Amino acid sequence: MTSSDKKNNDKQLSREPFSQFMHTMDRLFSEKPVKGMLQSLDDFFGSMRERSFPTEFFNKPNYYLITASLPGIKKEQINIELLPQAVTITITHTQNETLEHPSSRFFQRKQGTSTVTKTIHLPTPINEQSVTASHRNGILQLKLPKLKGNKINIHE
């Protein structure tokens, strides 16, 4: 093999990955996706919304107030974890479904569990022993008293 034949062979080998890439890209854009591109994006971002719940944070003079909208959630499904400067709210939702097929006397049971967690960071430490929580009509309300520090007087 001469040096010119070797160079031509090397050029052809180096073009091969590029032509494979171009072929793959052509196929990608010529074939229709199972769902439309916009529908796929909507599904992705819609599922992100479903993995959270709305909360409001109020900074009062002596305490913080956090409200979370949790329609359809029972208090047994809520877990609250306190840290000196953060609160973590975890919702665990278990779904059971049983389908009966009368013609074949067949039962189908589905069970699934989903967990949603939200952590809210607080500007100052809280008094963990005085925190109160209530859950009524799908609204979780947390009252977190602020921890008071010692005031230091400055002398001349």
Question: Could you explain how this protein is built, in words?
Answer:
The chain is an alpha+beta fold and 156 residues long. It is built from two helices and seven strands. The protein has helices at residues 3-30, 37-50, and strands spanning 55-59, 63-69, 78-83, 86-101, 106-121, 132-136, 139-145. The strands form two sheets. It has a four-stranded antiparallel beta sheet, with no helix packed on it. A three-stranded antiparallel beta sheet has the order 3-4-5, with no helix packed on it. The longest helix has 28 residues, at 3-30. The N and C termini lie far apart (94 Å).
Q: Layout of helices and strands, plus pairs?
A:
Blueprint: H1 3-30, H2 37-50, E1 55-59, E2 63-69, E3 78-83, E4 86-101, E5 106-121, E6 132-136, E7 139-145
Antiparallel strand pairs: 1-2, 2-7, 3-4, 4-5, 6-7
**Termini separation:** 94 Å
| Shape annotation | flat
What's the β-strand tally? 7
Largest sheet: 4 strands, antiparallel
Biggest β-sheet: strands ordered side by side in the sheet: 1-2-7-6
Broad structural category: alpha+beta
Give the helix tally.
2
Low-confidence stretches: none
Average pLDDT score = 78
> What fraction, in percent, of the residue positions are helical?
25-40%
